[in-house]
Amino acid sequence: MRNGRGPSPQRTGMTEKCGVVGVSLGGRNAARPLYYGLYALQHRGQESAGIITHDGFQQHSHVDMGLVGDVFGEDDLDQLNGAAGIGHVRYPTAGSVDSSCAQPFSVSFKSGSLGLSHNGNLVNADEIRDELAGMGHAFTSDGDTEVIAHDLARNLLDADLVRAVKRTMQRIHGSYSLTIMHDDTVMGVRDPQGNRPLCIGTLEDGYILASESAAIDTLDGELVRDVRPGELVVLQEDGQGFDSYQLVDLENTAHCFFEHVYFARPDSIIDDNLVYEVRRNLGRKLWEESGVESDVVMPVPDSGRAFASGYADAAGETTPDGEERDEHDDGVEFAEGLMKNRYVGRTFIMPTQDERERAVRLKLNPIKSTVEGKSVTLIDDSIVRGTTSTQLVQLLKDCGAEEVHMRIGAPPIVAPCYMGIDMATREELIAADKSVAEIAETIEADSLAYLSTDAVADVLESDRIDLCMGCVTGEYPYEIEGEETDREVDRPTIGEGTIPADD
Ligand code: AMP
Asked: Do residue 119 and residue 238 come from a single domain?
């Protein structure tokens, strides 16, 4: 384990929070199901979108910058022939608006063609890239997906598919949910700690792999199950089934709790939990841990909505001291007091602080009558830089709110994410060097409370050690230079001659 404050995650070239999908169908073309699947995963990435298909003879590809609806037209989908394919949407960050990182990434080599879609972030990509570059591999991007693709292509020269994937999994360290296409064989791989989600579903005429089950629902499919941490799933080419290989077994998982708190769609089931229910239960816990009597409970739309509904429900049952309410006491009123302008993109897309601040005001407008003269509890999922909460507290007070109490459905974010969530650098995180009381003062809230890490683990029915909570504890489940780890990390050794044996 290491001590000290590490560098902020590198911004350029790393694979961000993304959405991946893969399908293998009996006969019909895969392009349209992939397209709709990507549409369902659009919240996971808005910078670029891409699909690669294979028709049994050759690969077809269409990858471009932009939203799914803008990247693909009828003609593009029509030329994507083949019953097998993978797709990708990529999350935007400052400094990486670069088409060289758009995916799926494809490479042709001696024993065929390879396509790769990656969600997550490797922590040892540079080491592997240096080693492969030394062996003559030419890289066209600084992304870690290309590193995985080259490593896999090299392993495929002298090993079968399953062994080659296993070798690569034993070398790469970090977070990865992958859909891979080797010629017309579609596969899914989830890193041994299961950091990012990936699930399998059935369609009418085949099988699908997707980051979130909402993509399967969109296609009228059935969720079969999550891909297990360390598992390789190979979809059969006739669309009739899949084969499973448990390639790496680790004692503990490191599921990202923030998927449930913020990132995933509420209608997705991830690691057996319906995200909406998780958020409502986190809201209930928030009331139990730090409930405050007020006239009205109000969500920050849309991120705080499920939390606020759980919080208000629990507030209707018990007092802040945990006493049952009597029948004449209805608890706290739930109201929508902030209206969202749906045509403004996510605040984080704005690269500068100034633009971000303007975007918050553009995005949300208060309904004066639900706020005026009232004490308001405002609920959101998280505070990152503090921009949103500072502005909203001000907005509500300008509208005549007497008091504004802020309640947050996650613990304070004190450290950056190295695993693919665009979470800001340590210097930008308001909780990195401020106490809760200092943050309340900065955002000018009458009171502020966050949920505890124990409550999060409890609601996710998980041991704390099976979750990645690096951003709220500063201790990571991966070995990252200059950062502390929360467990013994089994990191592969890189270097020529050190490729682990196959079994
Ligand atoms: P901030 O204004 O920087 O404190 O960010 C907090 C707001 O951004 C909350 O409303 C969150 O729902 C939302 N949020 C949290 N994490 C992210 C993220 N990784 N990307 C985009 N928005 C986020």
From this structure: yes
Q: Say which residues have a Cβ less than 8 Å from residue 206's Cβ, sequence separation at least 6.
A: 23, 24, 25, 26, 83, 235, 239
Residues 134 and 239 in one domain: yes
For residues 324 and 285, membership in a common domain is answered with: yes
- Cα of 379 vs centre of ligand 1, distance in Å, is 13
pLDDT digits (tens, 9 = 90+) for 235-247: 999 999 999 999 9
Residue in 290, 307, 286 with CA at minimum distance from that of residue 298: 307
CA of 321 to the centre of ligand 1 (A): 30
CA of 300, closest atom in ligand 1: 10
* Probe residue for ligand 1, chosen from 305, 348, 378 as the CB with the greatest number of ligand atoms within 8 Å: 348
**Residue 220 exposed, middle or buried by CB count within 10 Å (0-12, 13-18, 19+):** exposed
Q: Give the closest residue (by CA) to ligand 1 atom 12.
A: 303
227 with 104, same domain: the answer is: yes
| Average pLDDT of the chain to the nearest whole number | 90
Q: Are residues 81 and 137 in the same domain?
A: yes
pLDDT tens column, 319-344: 999 999 987 777 789 999 999 888 87
The answer to whether residue 260 sits within a structural domain is no
Domain end, chosen from 253, 284, 316, is at: 253
| Same domain? 187 vs 43 | yes
Q: Going along 282-411, which residue ranges are E strands? A: 296-299, 333-334, 338-340, 364-366, 375-380, 403-408
pLDDT at 492: 66
User: Do 297 and 242 share a structural domain?
Assistant: no
Does ligand 1 come within 6 angstroms of the Cβ of 381?
A: yes
* Whole-number Å distance between alpha carbons of 336 and 369: 11
pLDDT tens per residue across span 142-188: 888 999 999 999 999 999 999 999 999 999 999 999 999 999 999 99
Q: How many domains does the chain contain in total? A: 2
**Residues 6+ away with beta carbon under 8 Å from 467:** 253, 254, 255, 256, 257, 456, 457, 460
Domain assignment of residue 456, given as a range: 273-476
Whole-number pLDDT of residue 350: 54
Query: Is the residue at 82 inside a domain?
Result: yes
Same domain? For 278 and 237 the reply is no
Q: Which atom of ligand 1 is nearest to the CA of 17?
A: 19
Cβ of 262 below 6 Å from ligand 1: yes
Task: Calculate mean pLDDT across residues 15-19.
Answer: 73
Distance from the alpha carbon of residue 375 to the mean position of ligand 1, in angstroms: 24
CATH number at residue 184: 3.60.20.10
Mutate to test the pocket of ligand 1, among 11, 388, 427 (most ligand atoms within 8 A of CB): 388
Q: What is the pLDDT of residue 498?
A: 43
Would residue 238 count as lying in a domain? yes
Query: Residue 348: CB within 6 Å of ligand 1?
Result: yes
- The structure tokens listed for 350 are 């704005």
408 close to ligand 1 (CB < 6 Angstrom):
no
- Give the per-residue pLDDT at 27: 87
Residue 487 lies in a domain: no
